[in-house]
């Protein structure tokens, strides 16, 4: 039923209470056939519905599966052997004033129409109750329904029939001790000759409708769906991924069967590959590589202070990296030029570079040593000669260890065309007494 404001019904003088008369149950007559719907025998208020009336109500109910429909139940209230029962002989469909609405609206006009029609068509019958449908909502009394029942059909023998034509369910309700219980069943009666019809109708009423899916899934080869899947990756992700996840969860919970298709196999293979990629332990990128990249980036951005920090972090790992030493000293030089108080650090780093050069020379990496000495020389105004001298001294002292061809070439290239023969001899005399004197300057190169 509808909103409360639609139920401003003034029944006024209309008498809805039916006079209870003594009358035998329909089943007492031999010419009458009675069938039961539900547990009719257990009902405290036996209700007998004539087959014709029931068929009319049922076809009215099924006429609209979207909007609610309803009407009045006509008949009488009788007593037999001290027990009150209701007999429904006919019905009057209500003309819904507002058919656009999904919910039934019993307006004042609706009631007036029902009472007028009863007087014209069935003057011998009373309104014993009302009926309405709940398409696909289930059989119950809503708050609005209860309002109507309590206010206009508040007697114990006044009944409300609710039909759900979609679920194929129906039940009567009535007021009893302030409550509105659902009655467990009712009787359907008619001429004995129509017994077959009655059972057919009852069988139809007892069958549960096939559970049809509310939304038909789209055909698998639906061109629109295919276009979305293949052409709209974002839409695909947004709409199909949750559906896919639900399906896969269903497979995991053994609620649905896995659907094996090439597409699914490919998707699973891709996922497995991704998981494998992330799960298998791969060596993390070396920390120092990150520091040198940051150092260069900070230098390029002009933040020499941060650059120095990153270079020093890097050099902890790679103390003999010439390029990093050069970068660090260059950054420190820039900082010095910016009047930052880094002169002590600068000096220390020059000393560290010189130590790295010595270390390289000691290890026989003369090319590296030479390049490091040149870096130091550039920052100390010692000049390249001094760098040559240092390396050459090491070279002279390490002939026995045979430096690599590449290392020697680096130094050689620098010496070619420079008049430093005297200096070499001098260095040789001063520092590297082990070198055979007889070879003099000509010991170079010995291989
Ligand atoms: Zn209702």
Structure description:
This protein is α/β, with parallel strands linked by helices. The chain folds into three domains: 4-206, 3-Layer(aba) Sandwich (Cytidine Deaminase, domain 2); 223-261, no CATH class; 287-443, Alpha Horseshoe (Serine Threonine Protein Phosphatase 5, Tetratricopeptide repeat), CATH 1.25.40. The chain has helices spanning 51-62, 108-121, 143-152, 195-206, 223-231, 233-252, 262-279, 287-301, 304-317, 322-337, 343-362, 366-380, 384-397, 405-415, 421-431, and strands spanning 21-22, 32-38, 47-50, 70-80, 83-93, 126-133, 159-164, 169-174, 185-191. Strands 1, 2, 3, 4, 5, 6, 7, 8 and 9 form a nine-stranded mixed beta sheet that branches. Strand 6, helix 3 (143-152) and strand 7 form a beta-alpha-beta unit. The chain is rod-shaped and about 135 Å long. 29% of the residues are buried. Residues 1-15, 419-424 and 432-447 have low confidence and may be disordered. Residues 1, 132, 134, 142, 145 line the site of zinc ion.
| Pattern of helices and strands | EEEHEEHEHEEEHHHHHHHHHHHH
CATH topology of the largest domain: Cytidine Deaminase, domain 2
Q: Report, as a whole number of angstroms, the end-to-end distance.
A: 110 Å
Instruction: Tell me the name of the CATH homologous superfamily of the largest domain.
Output: Cytidine Deaminase, domain 2
Strand content bin = 5-15%
Number of discrete domains: 3
Tell me what the CATH architecture of the largest domain is: 3-Layer(aba) Sandwich
Q: Report the C-alpha radius of gyration, rounded.
A: 51 Å
How many β-strand stretches? 9
Helix content: 40-55%
Which descriptor suits the 3D outline? rod-shaped
Estimated structural class: alpha/beta
Would you identify the regions where 5 or more consecutive residues have pLDDT less than 50? 1-15, 419-424, 432-447
Bound molecules: zinc ion
Largest sheet: 9 strands, mixed
- What is the class of the largest domain in the CATH system? Alpha Beta
**What is the tally of helical segments?**
15
Mean pLDDT: 78
């Amino acid at each position: 039923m509808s909103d409360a404001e639609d139920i401003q019904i003034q029944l006024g003088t209309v008498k809805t209470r039916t006079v209870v008369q003594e009358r035998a149950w329909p089943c007492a007559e031999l010419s009458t056939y009675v069938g039961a719907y539900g547990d009719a025998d257990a009902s405290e208020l036996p209700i007998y519905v004539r087959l014709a009336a029931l068929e009319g109500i049922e076809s009215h109910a099924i006429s609209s599966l979207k909007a609610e429909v309803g009407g009045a139940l006509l008949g009488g209230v009788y007593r037999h052997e001290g027990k009150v029962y209701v007999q429904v002989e006919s019905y009057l469909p209500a003309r819904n004033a507002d058919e656009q609405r999904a919910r039934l609206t019993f307006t004042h006009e609706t009631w007036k129409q029902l009472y007028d029609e009863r007087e014209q068509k069935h003057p011998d019958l009373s309104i014993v109750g009302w009926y309405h449908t709940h398409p696909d909502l289930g059989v119950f009394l809503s708050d609005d329904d209860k309002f109507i029942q309590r206010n206009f059909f508040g007697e114990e023998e006044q009944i409300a029939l609710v039909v759900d034509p979609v679920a194929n369910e129906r039940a009567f309700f009535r007021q009893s001790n302030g409550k509105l219980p659902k009655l467990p069943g009712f009787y359907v009666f008619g001429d004995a000759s129509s017994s077959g019809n009655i059972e057919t109708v009852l069988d139809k009423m007892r069958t549960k409708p096939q559970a049809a899916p509310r939304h038909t899934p789209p055909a698998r080869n639906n061109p629109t769906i295919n276009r979305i899947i293949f052409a709209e990756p974002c839409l695909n992700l947004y709409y199909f991924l949750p559906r896919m996840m639900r399906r896969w969860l269903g497979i995991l919970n053994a609620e649905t069967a896995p659907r094996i298709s090439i597409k699914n196999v490919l998707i699973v293979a891709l996922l497995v590959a991704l998981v494998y990629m992330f799960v298998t332990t791969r060596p993390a990128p070396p920390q120092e590589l990150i520091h040198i990249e940051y150092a260069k980036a900070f230098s390029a951005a002009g933040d020499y202070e941060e650059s120095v920090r990153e270079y020093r972090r890097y050099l902890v790992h790679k103390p003999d990296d010439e390029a990093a030493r050069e970068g660090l000293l260059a950054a420190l030089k820039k900082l010095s030029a910016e009047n930052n108080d880094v002169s002590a650090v600068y000096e220390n780093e020059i000393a560290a570079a010189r130590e790295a050069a010595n270390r390289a020379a000691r290890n026989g990496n003369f090319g590296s040593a030479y390049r490091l000495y040149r870096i130091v020389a550039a920052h100390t105004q010692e000049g390249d000669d001094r760098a040559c001298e240092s390396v050459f001294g090491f070279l002279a002292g390490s002939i026995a260890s045979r430096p690599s061809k590449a290392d020697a070439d680096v130094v050689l290239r620098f010496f070619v065309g420079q008049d430093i023969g005297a200096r070499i001899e001098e260095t040789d005399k001063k520092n590297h007494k082990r070198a055979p004197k007889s070879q003099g300057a000509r010991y170079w190169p010995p291989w």
